[in-house]
Structures are given as structure tokens and as C-alpha cells.
Amino acid sequence: MNIGFHYYVTKTLAIKAGFSHKDAELIAYACQYVDDATDHQVMVVKDMPEPLYERMYEEYFDPTCTSHKGIGNILYNFRNIRNKVLLPYHFIPEGWNKERKKFNYLTIPEAPMSLDLIELALAELQSNKKDSRIRDTALIRLGIALHSYEDTFAHQNFSARNSLKDNGVTDPIIRSNNRRRTNPFVGRLTGFLGYHIGHGLLGTFPDRFNTEITYIDGRKNRVYINTKVRFRKAARRVFDILRAITGTPDTWGKLLPQLNVCLEVNRSRRSDWKRAFSAQFKGTDYSYNPNQWKNITIRRDRDGNYRFSGDPIWFLYHQAAYEQRVFVMATLS
Asked: Model-level pTM?
């Protein structure tokens, strides 16, 4: 899924489920930032606070990369990158399949581990209601877990492996925003080069609103994707998860017509997303900026050095993301 769901839908659902606007923003920002956190090199940060976890030491901070973009996608062919980025955040596998008695690397909707990640976040949230920093970390952890959970709907039947059988795409027919689309050149190129990873051969189309796709997969099965149906189901389930936390009554019937209007069109700019959701959900502040948390936590001084500003929000994200990665990798190893 893209920012339309991970931030805009998630924030809307959190508010409708009874979260405060502040808490809803923490959840939704973290949920979307999983797709934007590309920092992956150790940084020197002056005036660092006491270490929050093991990737902070004196003046050194090692961020947790949860996404690669642009030329960084080439790195997906390296097992280490796939295991540390795609597997723990974007393509949670089904895991052990009792009926087939084998491990399934393909993502399935509501993969058991994606629900485990949410439960872990909720347990931390419930046990730390008074400590604001720990509570904020738990909300951020919930947002990251929701990203992985939401992606199980969009990324179903694909895997983080470089596998033609898992991720092969032949003869795709794509309609997005009610227009016929061609298979993206990058997808055709990566397939030609032997990169069969996730839904890369279909580009970003499985993540877009109002998109229909048919293709032959690597197991010679014809597959039909309707993201409107998938995303509506995902929204319903996320709403139920968030309602269960707050105890808010079920208002899905009232919410769905407004949400359907937003699901009708995939948009290309944040300003377009904001305009569309603000028109349907008046009074909700949608203001995502991928650099916001980083700029709050660290800033350049006159000498060009990074310095800690006093608000650890960006550090808290990386702590929560790292702990999810450790949990997933340890569980699957």
C-alpha cells in the first residue's frame, strides 16, 4: 500500500476509533514512515541523550533502515537487505502451514506473525499508560506493526525472496483509476535481469487505490487483484483492531461511504491526498512530511554537525523498528 492507506486511511480510522488526534498522528506517521525511513549509515550526533537501546552509543547513532528507494532497490538482490527490510516490514510470510506441513514464504492476508506484532505493541501500550516516552514508543510500535499488517492485504501471494515461483508475473493486464495501464518498464527490466522480488515486476500497482490486475503467476495460476476490495477489507479489520483498544462502538456503516469516496482514486501528490481526505473528514489535520520527525530530533549546527534537539521522537521510531526486525528475524530463523 502507499501513503493513501498507510497514513491517510490509518489516521482517519484511528480518530474514528477513539484515539486523540495526537495519538492518531503518532500511529499513522509511524505507519507511513516505514516506507520513508531510508537512513542506513551510522551518524555522529552531538549532545546525544542517554542510550535508549543498543544502536545508540556516546555520539554514534545507527538508524534502522525500513525502506529502500530509487537505485537502492538494486540492493534487494542481496539476501541481507531482503531479510532486514522486506521480510520484517513489508512481506510478512504465512510461516508454517499446518495443512501442507511446510514453511510458506508467501505473504497471506492477516499473516499470523503480523497479528503477533500488533499484540506485542498493544501489550506494551497497556502496561505503560503513565510513562509518556514509553507510551509514545508503544504507539509508534503499533504504527509500524499496522504497516506490516496492512501490507499483508496488498502484498498477498508475493514474498521477500528472489524467486520466480513466488513472484513471477506473465501477461499482466492492468487498469488503474479506470484507465488501461502498461506494465512498468522497471518491472520488465528487473524481470529480465533475474530479479523476482516482491511485486517488483508489477511496479507499485498492487499498492495503489482503485486498481485491477490480472496475470499468470510463477506457479502458472491466473491471479486477479482488485485493490478496492482488498483495501476496504483491510480498513475494516484495522478499524476493528483500533476499536478494540479504545472500546469505541462500531460506526463502520457510517464511516464506509466516506471512505469509499477516498478509495475511488489513487493520487500522486501529498497535497492531493490531503485535499481528498480533508473534504470527507473535516476537522482532521493531515500533515505528513517524511522529514518531520528527523528534523525535530536532530538539527545541523553552524559547523554542519548533527545535534540532538531534545525531542527523541525520531530515535523512538528507530528503536521500535529495530525491535520489530529483531523479533521477526529471530522468530523465522
From this structure: 0.95
